[in-house]
Amino acid sequence: MKQDSSLNRRHFLRIVGAAPLALRTSWARQLPPSPRLAFVGSGCDEIHVFQIDGPKWTLKQVVASEAPVSLTVHPNRGILYAVNQVTSHQDLPTGSVETFVLAPDGRFTAFGKTSLSLSAILPRHLALSPDGRRAIVAIHGGGAYNLLSIPGGGQRPQVAEILKETGCGPHTLHQLSAHPNMAVFDTTQGRVLTSDTGSDRISVLAVNENNLTVHQRFSTDPGSGPAHLALHPKGNILFVANQLNRSLCSYKYDAEQGKILHRIQRITEDTGGSLALHPSGRTLYTIGGEQDDVVQVWYIDPIIGRLNRLQSWQQNAGRSIALTAERDALFVLSHTLNGVLRFAADPTEGRLSAPTLVAEVPKPLSIATVYGPA
Asked: 214, 116, 96: which is closest to 160 by C-alpha?
């Protein structure tokens, strides 16, 4: 089932309302108690919406969305942004970001699409500031970052600034030009950490309402291809999964100065897939193995930030491409099983139990979950 409808501006504003507090309280009353919703993007140009009740997932809705490679929920919990990994939008060479809103009947409805800058093809990831007022889109194909300004209440974003990247690396197939892959806001909200698979670097960008500038460049190993990022909840350790040499690195980060200080550790075994941090900050999860079918659990030393292996799961589910962690569960997208695997997680240290398939989604691409107020 696909739904392809849109809301006019008046209807959108009626849903959103004028005050953020009213937004939070009204949506909290409408939605099921925590945990409640999961969104899974599909390579079949769909987003599947599930209601979560412990280990049980119930499909509530399927909405149309073209190549939803990255899903992000606004802090008001009533708006979802989907990055469309496409090469054209409205007959122009650019990608797009789609906005969905929660209607009064509890269903998510498409509100509209935002065109990215020209040549911003194949966008890969959207990072939303904790206050919900701006976002950074990493544009893999177009070699750039777009700063999006988001009006109050989470209305449809608009491009406010463009930062074009240059550079290359030694890998002749994947590093002929810059390929921004991911962005993460630090704890100050005024800086963004980014990865560039094509130029072997991670960067710190300074951001405000209308400007995006380079604050620091930090080179990684030649041919490493930094891709996935995870920032420790304390904001002092950055974890980087390198796509091309399949290594895992950790870096000391000073949020006050906005600087990556030095590398703490490099793990050279095959751990270069997706990353997720347990909310406690004690545990890091990674995907690796020849078929990306091994989920590894790493204990994070609280003093120096080094990683020590805690568990390794050969999940026997074939290729997995993304994961996200909550306090009591780790969710892994399996391409082979066409669905979502749920590992029960210890709420204190993040140890995992055997997985179960909780949802079937064809060609899963991305996942985001929404939890209600504490």
From this structure: 116
Give the CA radius of gyration of the chain. 19
To which H or E segment does residue 321 belong? Answer: strand 320-325
What pTM was estimated for this model as a whole? Answer: 0.88
Question: What is the C-alpha to C-alpha distance for residues 249 and 211, in angstroms, rounded to an integer?
Answer: 30
The DSSP-derived string for 109-138 is EEEEEEE--TT--SEEEEEE-TTSSEEEEE
Structure tokens at 343: 């590992």
What are the pLDDT digits (tens) for 79-112? 999 999 999 999 999 999 999 998 767 788 998 9
User: In Å, how far are 6, 271, 287, 332, 340 from 355, measured between CA atoms?
Assistant: 37, 20, 14, 9, 10
Cα–Cα dist 264/39, whole Å: 34
- Between CA 324 and CA 287 the distance in angstroms is 11
Evaluate whether 193 touches 186 at the Cβ level (below 8 Å): yes
pLDDT in tens, 105-157: 778 899 899 999 999 999 999 999 999 999 999 999 999 999 999 987 777 89
Total Cβ atoms within 10 A of residue 346: 16
Beta strands in 43-94 (DSSP E): 46-53, 56-64, 68-73, 79-84
DSSP 194-258: EEETTTTEEEEEEE-SS-EEEEEEEE--TT--EEEEEE-TTSSEEEEEETTT--EEEEEEETTTT
Residue 226 · residue 220 · CB < 8 Å: yes
